[in-house]
Design brief:
Layout lengths: L16 H34 L4 H43 L1 H22 L6 H28 L24 H27 L2 H28 L2 H10 L1 H22 L3 H27 L15 H31 L1
The chain binds protoporphyrin IX containing FE (HEM).
């Protein structure tokens, strides 16, 4: 069977595709930053708690429910933009994963309530139950992340979709050698940014031990991630790898820029400067999100090019979107201003 026959016809889009791609990359980078702070600080807190130091898990634990809510909110936006430009691939992979994919909602609910209970019932729960609840909620986050890695890689491989005709159950992208380093790369990134989040939290709370521990996690996991990044590159299909190694100049330059930003982050990290490191880390995540986008385009090149999408040039809904974005952003900025002012008054 020709897998191309399984790709649905692309729907027309109202405005130029580049708008959706830019919004997709920008909102995805924000999603990843929140997800990293959430998952990474939870791992670090639990690792230290299991060794008898409960300070970080208590401090980070207070931030997990809002971080999870923000991660989900900042995930909805890229999901919508992804479906606009790449829906004919992403809808298919979501359906093929079946129950695995649908279970994400139930697992997220469990993790959310788990972290909520951890924060608000901390004193009334026994330490064992508390740690069990925290650990299983964290496992839930790993499950969700792994499902996203499966979906985002399965959508790129229509040749793997034909398995649908051999099974009645949903399936994952196990046969893809790039899945494993990609997921590990994402999780180590979470460890690094999570460490940075712990360090910044420590700075605000005036806890030097949290700053030192957080920066330790940032630098060590980032160094390990350089090795996993090389594994990830090597696991990519040859055409994608050669494009990133000079075959496609803009893609290669994006990768070089991302690596330079990693260098800046490591330099500031080893000097023990959380704020400067945070600046470099945000730049790194954004540039790596661009590299990841190149990887998607290069994977899909034999099946689809974004330029082939029909455009209707109806800009009305876009102007409405921009209007709400600007007005909504201004209202949120005003609310934050009031919030911080009221906190200053209390201090
Ligand atoms: C809170 C738990 C979550 C975790 C740990 C998580 C983790 C991840 C990871 C690791 C990826 C990258 C996968 C890859 O490319 O290999 C990812 C991508 C993505 N996530 Fe999340 N995610 C979470 C929740 C959500 C939710 C609730 C949504 C949407 C409602 C969402 C939307 C997305 C989208 C759309 C992408 C891909 C964007 C793109 O391909 O450009 N995430 N997530």
């Amino acid at each position: 069977m020709n897998p191309a026959s399984l790709i649905p016809l692309a729907e027309p889009i109202p405005i130029h595709w580049a708008w959706f791609d830019i919004l997709l990359i920008a909102t995805f980078a924000a999603h990843v930053l929140f997800m990293n702070a959430l998952l990474g600080s939870a791992v670090i807190g639990l690792a230290h708690a299991l060794r008898g130091d409960g300070g970080i898990i208590r401090e980070a634990g207070k931030k997990l429910p809002p971080l999870l809510a923000l991660t989900i909110n900042m995930g909805v936006a890229p999901l919508l933009f992804l479906q606009v430009n790449y829906g004919n691939f992403d809808y298919v992979s979501s359906v093929l994963m079946g129950g695995w994919w649908l279970a994400v909602i139930a697992v997220l609910l469990y993790s959310y309530y788990g972290f909520y209970a951890y924060k608000f019932k901390y004193d009334t729960m026994g330490p064992r139950l508390r740690t069990l609840l925290f650990g299983t909620s964290l496992l839930g986050l790993f499950y969700v992340g792994f499902m996203f890695s499966n979906n985002m890689t399965l959508m790129l491989r229509p040749e793997a979709w034909t398995r649908y005709f051999e099974t009645t159950a949903g399936f994952l992208n196990w046969s893809d050698p790039a899945l494993y380093p990609r997921f590990l790369h994402m999780m180590l990134g979470a460890g690094a940014v999570g460490g940075l989040f712990v360090a910044l939290l420590g700075q605000v709370r005036g806890k030097d031990d949290m700053v030192t521990t957080g920066m330790w996690w940032f630098t060590r996991t980032t160094l390990a991630n350089l090795a996993v990044g090389v594994w990830f590159l090597m696991a990519l299909p040859n055409e994608v790898l050669t494009a990133l190694m000079g075959g496609n100049l803009p893609a290669t330059l994006t990768l070089v820029a991302a690596l330079l930003a990693v260098g800046g982050a490591l330099y500031a990290g080893f000097k023990g400067q959380p704020r400067q490191t945070a600046g470099w880390a945000v730049a790194t995540v954004f540039l790596m999100a661009c590299v990841r986008h190149w990887v998607r385009a290069l994977y899909l090149a034999p099946w689809f090019t974004i330029e082939s999408l029909p455009v209707t040039n109806r800009y009305g809904s876009f102007y409405l979107f921009v209007g709400f974005l600007v007005a909504g952003g201004a209202i949120i900025a005003y609310m934050l201003k009031l919030y911080f002012k009221s906190r200053q008054g209390r201090a």
